[in-house]
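During the first year of the project, the team set up a workflow for recording each protein of interest as an amino acid sequence followed immediately by a discrete structure-token representation. This format lets reviewers and collaborators read both layers of information side by side without switching files. As required by the reporting guidelines, we include two representative entries from the current panel. The first entry is reproduced here exactly as it appears in our internal archive.
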Amino acid sequence: MAININHQTNDISATGGGSLTIDGAAVGGGGGADGLGFTGGSYNASTGVVTFTSDDGLGFSTGDLRGADGTNGTDGTNGTDGTNGTDGTNGLGFTGGSYNASTGVVTFTSNDGLGFSTGDLRGADGAGGGGSTALTSGIANFIGR
């Protein structure tokens, strides 16, 4: 006869025939009353503490079980570029300019109130000269639109 003891299920069995007696009584009978012991446990994620509860006075709580923060991981690859946005509205500013050869005045135009006109930009006649020919109507509208 062989006696087998299973510590995980608390089973005792005999194989190969015969009978098994413990302290003079045949093996068998009903189960005993449940014993005292641990009744539950919980974890508090905000404190890292585990609390064990029991009905026999052995309940306890651990300290913070969380480890130190690990090192940061490596950066991931860059994502793809997004689509281009729509063009904004045209801004305000200078819209053109002109030169009046008969007065020597340059006039700058704008759509934001900054337009202005210069005074006569022609210099005095040179000695023996017959008038200013440096600025002529050929350079009118020299500022792009």
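The second entry, processed by the same pipeline in the following quarter, appears below.
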Amino acid sequence: MKKITILGLFVSLLFAFSCTTKITTSKLQSQDSVLISENRQDSLDLNFDLEYIVSGFSQDAIKAFNDSIVYQSLAVIGLDANELAVENLADCISDNLIKANRELYDNAEESVGASWSYYVAGEFLPKYEKYFSYKLYTESYLGGAHGISNTRCFVLNNDGKVISEEDLFKEGTEEVLNNLLESVAQKYFKDNVGDDYVMDQNVRANSNFYMTDEALVYVFNPYEIAPYYLGTIELSLPWKDLKSLLK
């Protein structure tokens, strides 16, 4: 098996002028083209551009967050690994994807090529008040009619804890929040698809959100609230509309 690798690593600081909390991050940048078999040209192309935390929070908080990045990156392609460092993610994915599908490759005819790809990118977004938002995007093609993309967002407070709706909203406001999302979704589909589009799925808060200065933004992946062809859908709830719901 042959492997061609380009690897880069950098360190940066994230901070807010309004407070003293700052974090140091590194980035895993890697492009691999892995030949699946010595006797064929089938390949697995890997591309990583993944930011992760080095310091700024407690070691427990840093480990918990970085573990979440690793878990999510593996889960979307059906893999699992315990205690895996971010730096080893690329090798883990290439080795395990090939191992899991070795029988398929060996039994395939010469004319049936396996040109697979996996891309993962993760970065911190601009800080909002005391919150750090992080967006993790994965895109893979592992055979079939089309590839699959997935976006997972995390929001951390100044202690490095990943927060959920329960941390943000008052008890008993779930239905109001869902009604707001439903209303925004209806407008989104009307503006982007047309008046004739009929929503066939309820829109509910899914704990997949990030924050901006203007809004709390919920992210829905393909198939989650709409057909695949509509792609990833982001619904913005302005802070002014959420004021009465927030703790």
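For the second entry, the following points were noted during internal review. The longest strand covers residues 22-35. The CA atoms of residues 75 and 81 lie 9 Å apart. Both points are flagged for discussion at the upcoming steering committee meeting.
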